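### Sample
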Amino acid sequence: MENLLNIATAEIGVKEISGPKANPRILQYAKDLGVNNYTSDEAAWCSLFMNWVALKSNLERSNKLSARSWLNVGIPISNPEPGDIVIFWRESRDSWKGHVGIFTGFSTDNTRVYCLGGNQGNQVSITAKPISRVLGYRRLRNVQPLELPNRDLKRGDTGFEVVILQNALKQLGFNCGTSDGIFGKKTEQALIDFQSTNEDLELNGIFNKDTRKYLKEILKSNTN
């Protein structure tokens, strides 16, 4: 399954068609999700897009077209990484209106949040919104148990197998940073922190047979 950021980035530039016609790509998002009677791309579609990206990434979804519905999904976090979800209020804090997108970073003065999302300027784009409008950040979990790599992984390794390991560690709350497929110092430390929860494991920062078995057990227990 592709990475959420890669899937969303590939859609940048998809935009509404003014007038009675609708962009067939946006209508396809609705069709893939099983959303009936969605015939106009002028309807709010930021949550539609977010649900579609989550579907294609095999991640949990809100299954609703309201942006604030994403506050009920995922793991609440205070230190987001690129690929996490950010929810904003719109027009009024005390209303149902909002916006949802994929967190990509903070401005240098820490007053704005950059996010990748749909219906931003009537298209899929990356834009900045005031940090004062953030309602929360969420980390989405896999809807099915992760198929962990069968080979050993250690610092210096790269590739999609490392992404899977990073996603698994983040799902359990161990901070390895962005799931970038690079087994660096931060991923190594997160793995050591995880190993330290089992006194029978060697704290070596290597994803080996014993660590793999224990990680599978913990992931399974968290989904039951």
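The domain at 4-139 is CATH 3.90.1720.10 (endopeptidase fold (from Nostoc punctiforme)). This sample (TIGR02594 family protein) is used throughout the tutorial notebook.
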